[in-house]
Write a structure and sequence with these properties.
heterotrimer, A alpha+beta (about 350), B mainly alpha (about 240), C mainly alpha (about 60), B: about 240 residues, about 80% helix, C: mainly alpha, 3 helices
Chain lengths: ~350, ~240, ~60
């Protein structure tokens, strides 16, 4: 029982991760601030102002409607917008109280609320009909800032929304594939060092087989995620090309194995090819994406997603997911290897 | 078996030092290639026919993207065609003899050198055919030189990987199919960098700003060469 | 539940349909059952492997 603890542990970890993935709620965020075309009258002054509709995501504005504060920010300039009324939890009518001359065209929208805390919508407001004078400074406001008062939740990310949960299913697939291909790489080196025995070759073969399975699962989960966030099942991205080519390279490894009859020669040739394959894997998935523009987070093109590795809720689910999937992959690899060896002995 | 004697006699000095054995092997590979004139003529014909097919499809109106894509695809397939055949030295009895005369490292270095020079020749032919048929409207002045330079560096990178893949496929008794299955996925990083470099050159980006791609290709071919140098003895021994 | 559902549907169609309506919990249950089934299957496979290996070993050692 004691030496089996890691096998059970892997499954328990993944079970916990699945519970987190499907049960933890999403944090609040801002979806858009859009002009309605109407004009509204200001509450205190008798001033006309354009009316905007602010849409939130999972926000709780109707709980304390009077606490909702809406601000716009552009570099050091900060200005307050007027909340005309709160329609429901996620919709509020906003009056644009900016003067005719403003320092910038595009503004970040911020809200502060006693439940949701501070939320940010980058470049949420674009003013095309105002006079731009960069020397104007707007900063004289005083706000009462609230801290967020929310249960355990996953962070809101623009465009990714609820699909952030896929992080726990997609990324660990690649980690597991890396680990298994690394095992195959080490086994292949050992195989070349050993003269006649093919034990290490069987290890490499089953590691590649299970690793390929995880690679294909990574492609499938990634494809589904790409459809949701980027709008296509497949996009031209160095990371994706690298992943597909890796799967092709290792399929070539399996083809090479199947085309060889003699066990000793097969062990040696496939070990040689496997070393090439692993070097290509490193180049494709770790070196090349750093040199090119990529849609993937942390590599340019999608700056809104850079904060995910700092969030404690995601960490609490992501690290167990990585460890759990790697443990399951290792167990699958061991069973596969033992079946291969048993088959060989029976022949 | 006079081919074996060729290897030993073709160098003027007795083939004792590693360098002279390497030089003799390289010279021998060229001798064998030029002896089979129809094989070489077939390769050249294949490249020119491929370029001519591209010309028939696009005319001389190919835009920069298409020009770039066609050039690299034709180069890639010419390269595979050039290496994907078995030389007389690949026969098992020949290997059994060579194992006693030369070191496998010398053999693989000679092979890589031979393939590099052969593929450089092929890429020159492809490039000239492209200029002849598809025109030079995207290549002004130095751009053509830089593009050709990229083709030569890519040829060396292709050669250093394909030499190893060809040896592997021959050892596994596989034909062109096996070389394609094993080689094409492995070659994709090289092609990705090469096409990006070509696109940069055709779009008029200055050479200094895209030269890192060539450096990367050089590093790759060095890496493949080193890997082949280390691993080839395992392929050769019985 | 209904009011929350309506709001979620307004802000994003998938949220109301999947997470707001509790369908996510059904998917969670199915995923857990699949995971446990897979784990038990692997456990059984390993036990049978052990049995077969032991059988093969005794067979190999008996004649010699």
């Amino acid at each position: 029982m004691a030496h089996n603890i890691w096998k059970i542990g892997g499954f328990i970890l993944i079970a916990c991760v699945l519970v987190l993935v499907f049960a933890v709620p999403m944090g609040p965020g801002l979806l858009e601030l859009r002009g309605t075309g109407d004009t509204a009258m200001s509450n205190d002054l008798d001033r006309k102002m354009p009316e905007y509709l602010l849409t939130g995501f999972g926000t709780h504005w109707s709980e304390n409607p009077q606490d909702l504060q809406v601000l716009v920010r552009s570099k050091a300039n900060l200005a307050r917008l007027e909340v005309i009324d709160v329609l429901d939890d996620t919709h509020a009518r906003i009056g644009l109280t900016l003067p005719y001359s403003v320092p910038s065209k595009s503004w970040d929208v911020l809200t502060n609320h006693s439940v949701d805390g501070t939320l940010l919508l980058e470049n949420g407001l674009f003013l095309s009909d105002r006079f731009i004078d960069e020397s104007i400074i707007l900063s004289d406001i005083d706000i009462e800032e609230f801290e967020a008062d929310l249960p355990f939740h996953f962070p809101y990310q623009p465009r990714i929304l609820e699909s952030i949960r896929n992080l726990m299913l997609h990324v660990p697939m690649w980690f597991t594939m890396f680990v298994l291909m690394g095992i195959a790489f080490v086994a292949s080196i050992k195989q070349l060092a050993s003269a006649r025995a093919t034990a290490e070759d069987e290890k490499a073969e089953s590691a590649v087989r299970v690793g390929l399975l995880f690679g294909i699962l990574g492609l499938v989960t990634g494809s589904v995620w790409a459809r949701f966030t980027w709008g296509a099942w497949w996009v031209d991205d160095p990371q994706l090309n690298g992943a597909l080519v890796t799967v092709l390279v290792y399929s070539g490894y399996m083809v090479l194995r199947n085309s060889l009859e003699s066990a000793a020669l097969r062990a040696r040739l496939s070990a040689v090819y496997n070393l090439f394959a692993f070097v290509i894997l490193i180049i494709l998935l770790m070196v090349l994406p750093r040199f090119t523009e990529s849609l993937h987070p942390g590599k340019g093109g999608n700056p809104g997603f850079n904060s995910y590795d700092l969030d404690s809720a995601l960490r609490a689910a992501f690290y167990p997911a990585v460890i759990g999937w790697i443990l399951i992959g290792l167990w699958m690899h061991r069973i596969n290897m033992r079946i291969t060896r048993l088959n060989k002995k029976l022949k | 078996m006079n081919e074996m004697e060729d290897i030993m006699n073709s160098s003027s000095a007795p083939a004792s030092s590693a360098w002279s054995r390497f030089a003799a092997l390289t010279r021998h590979a060229f001798k064998m290639e030029f002896r089979q004139k129809n094989g070489l003529a077939g390769l050249i014909l294949f490249s020119i026919a491929a370029v001519y097919t591209c010309y028939q499809v696009t005319g001389s109106r190919a835009d920069a993207e298409a020009w770039n894509a066609l050039a690299w695809v034709v180069l890639l397939f010419s390269a595979f065609n050039a290496v994907a055949k078995s030389w007389p030295e690949d026969a098992p009895e020949m290997r059994a003899y060579l194992v006693h005369v030369v070191r496998p490292q010398e053999w693989v270095l000679a092979r890589i050198t031979f393939f590099s020079l052969l593929l450089c020749g092929m890429s020159s032919i492809v490039f000239m055919a492209f200029i002849l048929f598809l025109g030079t409207e995207h290549l002004n002045g130095m751009q053509a030189v830089y593009f050709f330079m990229g083709m030569l560096v890519t040829s060396v990178a292709l050669a250093s990987l394909l030499a190893m893949i060809q040896a592997l496929a021959v050892r596994a008794n596989g034909g062109f199919g096996l070389i394609a299955v094993l080689g094409l996925p492995l070659i994709i990083p090289v092609i990705l960098i090469a096409t990006r470099y070509g696109m940069d050159i055709l779009h008029g980006i200055s050479f200094a700003d895209t030269a890192h791609n060539l450096l990367f290709l050089g590093t790759l071919s060095g890496g493949f060469g080193a890997l082949g140098f280390i691993l080839f003895p395992y392929l050769w021994s019985d | 539940m209904n009011a929350l559902n309506l709001i979620l549907v307004q802000s994003h169609p998938l949220e109301g349909w999947f997470f707001g309506s509790g369908k996510a919990l059904v998917v969670l249950a199915v995923a857990l059952i699949l995971l446990v089934g897979f784990g038990l299957w692997m456990w059984r496979a390993e036990a049978r492997l052990k049995q077969l290996e032991a059988k093969l070993d005794s067979k190999n050692s008996a004649p010699s």
